[in-house]
Amino acid sequence: MMFGFKSAATKRINALRGTPGAQVWQRNYYEHVIRSESALDRIRRYIANNPAGWSVDPENPAVRDVQHW
User: How far is residue 69's CA from residue 65's CA, in Å, rounded to a whole number?
Assistant: First the structure.
């Protein structure tokens, strides 16, 4: 179901922007339904603590560029 939404939204966004075929959605992004309070708490902790690891995260372009040298 979400694929149809993303496809339609992408076409509409690109039509409005005048950018046919441009990527709109974040790479490797996936949807997740939060089904419990404990899952929500775990996700909140992840979001709160995630920036602390950005300086060593391989997805950080600054880290990735340094690792290639």
Answer: 7
